[in-house]
């Protein structure tokens, strides 16, 4: 009996020690404003214990990583002070390669946001103040309840310009709660219970219930009056996640990942020219009437390599319109090769009519340099380098003789700096800027 008692107490003590160690491990991870250094031994523990973690997978020799580091250090205290704090952590992916492989890191720096342990690619800016503004979205409630005009104004102002904002006026919260959760990573959602007629005039709706979508960075507003069944609500939300006419660059291409609609792409000389701005207004009108398509535009001055993949350059008769499904082919419309006439609204209508009637010509996305830049914007420049290396190695192996076999060794690490034509502060983060 004495032996059984000793065994019981030993087992109880061991269990308590294990539970105590687990509790200690969990409680050791706190959002105190410092940047955590994670490795193979503590990564999973930190990710499991903390709700929101932005992880920087970096390499000590990477130039971009060195420039990013002080921005993350500056952002960490502000993010830690949020009601639902966000922690910033770093992993030396060059040393802890198993973690890099596990999370698909193919270039440096790679930022991933872990939400309750689930990773997603971070697609936001990398300057400290903009990074903080961007990440606040992920710490916010699924749907925020607003009880006054000032509360609505504060909510819209605090939301910033990175994500669209949805405000339901006189709308039952239960109608959009599930959609607020589903699209939380892409937009802000709120419901206003008390508001004045002045606010109705400000947001340009004349009856309730109404769901208003705002695109602060594009100065766009859309109003939905129902029906408020989930199917119709979701269609409105999905279609208004993007502006009516979207400028095409590295970041906006990524935002189209989950959108299955084809892109009506208009190529101009320079997006900032007055004649291009007038054309963009026409494209917005066309987009309002053709919500089954995404309307985008790109200037040769802004992204020449991308424009060249569609056969457009400085010698091409512009503007040029094509329909692209983001694969290796695109469509032109017979008789609408360019829209450079005086009545561009009619020409855009004729292009869309010709596309829907099937009067199209199939073309291949082309241009070796341009296509590389295009691919890299989706899969990462590191992956492109790997593919090029593999192809080159295969060619060398085929040429090698049996007497003089090919010997392959490890080369020195190189800090591959790349550049981008997008100049906006908020679009600093680009796949092509990752370091191998």
Structure description:
It is built from 15 helices and 16 strands. The protein is 41% helix and 18% strand. The chain has 3 domains: 119 residues, 3-Layer(aba) Sandwich (Glutaredoxin), CATH 3.40.30; 99 residues, Glutaredoxin (3-Layer(aba) Sandwich), CATH 3.40.30.10; 125 residues, 3-Layer(aba) Sandwich (Glutaredoxin). With 436 residues, it is of the alpha/beta class. The termini are far apart. The longest helix has 26 residues.
What is this entry, summarized?
The protein has 436 residues and is of the alpha/beta class. 41% of the residues lie in helices and 18% in strands. It has helices at residues 2-27, 43-49, 63-80, 97-102, 128-139, 149-159, 173-182, 197-202, 230-239, 250-255, 274-289, 304-308, 344-356, 368-379, 381-399; strands at residues 36-38, 52-58, 87-92, 110-115, 118-121, 144-146, 165-169, 188-192, 210-215, 220-224, 245-247, 263-268, 294-299, 320-324, 329-333, 360-364.
Key words describing this protein structure:
Thioredoxin_CS, 16 strands, redox-active center, Putative thioredoxin-like protein, Glutaredoxin, 6-stranded mixed β-sheet, 5-stranded mixed β-sheet, 15 helices, alpha/beta, 3 domains
Q: What does the secondary structure layout of this molecule look like, with pairings?
A:
Blueprint: H1 2-27, E1 36-38, H2 43-49, E2 52-58, H3 63-80, E3 87-92, H4 97-102, E4 110-115, E5 118-121, H5 128-139, E6 144-146, H6 149-159, E7 165-169, H7 173-182, E8 188-192, H8 197-202, E9 210-215, E10 220-224, H9 230-239, E11 245-247, H10 250-255, E12 263-268, H11 274-289, E13 294-299, H12 304-308, E14 320-324, E15 329-333, H13 344-356, E16 360-364, H14 368-379, H15 381-399
Parallel strand pairs: 1-3, 2-3, 6-8, 7-8, 11-13, 12-13
Antiparallel strand pairs: 2-4, 4-5, 7-9, 9-10, 12-14, 14-15, 15-16
